[in-house]
Amino acid sequence: MKRSLVLAGILLLAIWFFANPAQAFTAKSLDISVQQNADAVITFDYELSWVENIAVFMRIADPGLELKKALESNYKKPVVVTVADGGRSQFIVQGFASPQEHNGTVTMKSPALSFVEAENVLNQYWFAPFINPDFSPETTRVSFPDGYFEEFANEISIPSISHTLNP
C-alpha cells in the first residue's frame, strides 16, 4: 500500500513537472551607469526558477558568467564581474561608451543592447523545455555622468543613446 502511494505521488509530481513549464529567468531591472571615463557599471537584477537555481548550484549554468561572456562577445571590451549571485550580477565594462569631444563639449554614445542572443543561449541548456524565460527587464535605465538618463519598460532590446554632457 505504501509503495503504491509513493509511486502515485512520484507520478503526479512528474506529470506536474513536465506539464507545467516553470517561469524561468525573469529580468527585473537593468541599470547601465556610464562613467566619466566612458566605462559603464552595469547592474542586472533577475529572478531564477527553482530549476535554474539547481543548475546554478550545480554550476551547470552561471548567469554571471554567461552575461559576462555575452557582454565581451558583443562589445569586444574587457568585462569585470563585481557581483554574481542568484539574483544580481554587476559588471564593469571598460570603454563601454564612445566619447567624442567637439569645441569643448563631450558627447557620449552608448551602444545598443539586446538580450535576444542571451535567450538563444539559455535555450541550449537541458532544462530549456521546462522554463519560460523573460529577458526583457521590467525597467532599463541608462544614465550618464551629468545625471541625464533614459528609461525603457519591458524591452528586450534598447537602442544606442547619444548624449551631450552638460558642463
Series of H and E elements = HEEHHEEEEEHEEEEE
Which structural class do the helices and strands define? alpha+beta
**Terminal residue distance:** 79 Å
Helix content: 25-40%
How much of the residues is beta strand, in percent?
35-45%
Can you tell me the number of structural domains?
A: 1
Give the CA-based shape: elongated
Largest sheet: 7 strands, mixed
What's the total number of strands?
A: 12
Average pLDDT rating: 78
Radius of gyration: 20 Å
Segments where pLDDT lies below 50 for 5+ residues?
Answer: 5-9, 11-22
Helix count, per DSSP?
A: 4
What attributes characterize this protein structure?
167 residues, alpha+beta, 3-stranded antiparallel β-sheet, 4 helices, 40% strand
Descriptive report:
The chain is an alpha+beta fold. The protein has one domain. Helix content is 28%, strand content 40%. The chain has four helices and twelve strands. Strands 1, 2, 3, 4, 8, 9 and 10 form a seven-stranded mixed sheet that branches. A hairpin with a 2-residue loop joins strand 5 and strand 6. About 10% of the residues have low confidence.
